[in-house]
Design a protein that fits this description.
It is a single chain. With 194 residues, this protein is α/β, with parallel strands linked by helices. The chain is built from seven helices and ten strands. Helix 3 packs across helix 6.
C-alpha cells in the first residue's frame, strides 16, 4: 500500500511516502511548499499520484491556517484520485516520536496545546520529571524546565511531528472529507469578528 502522509499544523511541515511501511522518502519544510514536497517525494519514490493508495493527514492542534492547508490538500488529492485517508493528531505523532514524552505544541497567544488539556499557559503544563517535545517545548523551554521538565536541544528531531509517524499511527481509512481538524479553540479571525 503506497501511502502519502503529511502534517502542516506546526511551523515545520513534514511529509513522507511509504510503501507497505517502508519509507521511500521524507521531507521537512513549511506548509506553503507542501505540494512541491509531495511532487519531490513521488519523484524520489519513482511513483505518480495515480499510484497512491491512501493519504494520512495531520489534524492538529496547531496553526489554524497550517492545519487547513493540510486538510485542503488532502481533500483535493483524495477527490481527484478517488482514494481514502486517515487523520492523525499532531500531538499523537509527536508523542510517538519520543516514547513517554509530553507533546507540547505552540498555540501562540502565550499558550501551548497539550494532550487532554487543550490550550493552556505553559506554566500550567504538568510535566514535572517528564520529557517535553514539540515547538511549544522549544519556545517555552525555560518555563517548562523551571517546572521540572526536561526539554531536548532545539535542533533535536523529536520536536518535529514526523509524517512517517502519522502514517504508522493510522489504522482506519475512510472518506477524507470526513476527517475533522482538531482546533481546540476558535480562530483569531472569529474572535475579532465578535
Amino acid at each position: 500500500m503506497l501511502i502519502l502522509a503529511f502534517d502542516t499544523a506546526t511551523d515545520v511541515a513534514t511529509s513522507a511516502l511509504l510503501d507497505d511501511g517502508e519509507v521511500l522518502g521524507e521531507r521537512s519544510s513549511i506548509a506553503k511548499t507542501l505540494l512541491e514536497d509531495v511532487d519531490a517525494l513521488l519523484r524520489q519514490g519513482s511513483a505518480r499520484t495515480s499510484d497512491l493508495d491512501a493519504l494520512v493527514v495531520g489534524t492538529g492542534p496547531g496553526s489554524f491556517t497550517g492545519t487547513r492547508i493540510g486538510l485542503a490538500v488532502a481533500r483535493g488529492l483524495a477527490l481527484a484520485l478517488g482514494i481514502e485517508g486517515a487523520g492523525v493528531s499532531t500531538l499523537d505523532a509527536l508523542a510517538a516520536g519520543a516514547d513517554g514524552a509530553v507533546p507540547v505544541v505552540d498555540a501562540r497567544r502565550g499558550e501551548v496545546f497539550v494532550p487532554g488539556r487543550g490550550a493552556v499557559a505553559p506554566e500550567y503544563v504538568q510535566a514535572e520529571g517528564a520529557l517535553c517535545v514539540g515547538d511549544g517545548a522549544v519556545r517555552y523551554r525555560q518555563v517548562l524546565e523551571d517546572g521540572g521538565a526536561t526539554v531536548p536541544p532545539d535542533d533535536d528531531p523529536r520536536h518535529v511531528p514526523r509524517a512517517v509517524l502519522h502514517a504508522r499511527l493510522a489504522t482506519t481509512f475512510g472518506p477524507v472529507e470526513e476527517i475533522e481538524p482538531i482546533y481546540v479553540r476558535a480562530p483569531d479571525a472569529e474572535r475579532w469578528r465578535r
